[in-house]
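Issue 218. Parser rejects a valid record. Input:
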Amino acid sequence: MYIFGASGHGKVIIDLLGTEDRVHGIFDDNTHLTQLMEFPVLGPVPDHFIFDHPLMIAIGDNRARQKVYLRYRERADFASMVHDSAIFSKRATMGAGTVVMERCLVKVDSQLGRQVIVNTAASIDHDCRISDFAHIAPGAILCGGVRVGEGTLIGAGSTVLPGIQIGSWVRVGAGSVVTRNVPDGSTWIGNGLKASI
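Output the parser choked on:
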């Protein structure tokens, strides 16, 4: 596959690759990044470059990942990944470009959208709906029937109680407990709503 993103999340994606997978090239708009581990970084994607292998957008920031997806969605097929140590229900689904990392749990009838990150040891219980460009950070727990809107970050080690609806482009702080619905563009820290963006 090709990888777009030559920083920390790019390293994580490379590390997730199996022995049969091959990195065909790494791109990044930052021309100062020339090497990612043992791989050269090729710089920005040339205007007329043809993606002859799937592309993985390896960017942790949700808005930046969306921006790159919109730039290349007409030119590329997007790779998806589920690590061998994850438990991903045969009755769950995920969209193009989504990655499910080590020791994650995705239960029955959950649906993950496009370009979602389910980070290390996160748990998504039954019947959850995770919209495009969301990021479920390491160790986060979503109880059954949770809805997460587009571009939302569920912070590391946080817990979302059953049936809660979280809007689009929300930030849930690390270690929070979400006990009620959260409107679009809000920030939830600890046990309560703190601000709107």
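Fixed in the parser; the record now loads. The longest strand covers residues 192-196.
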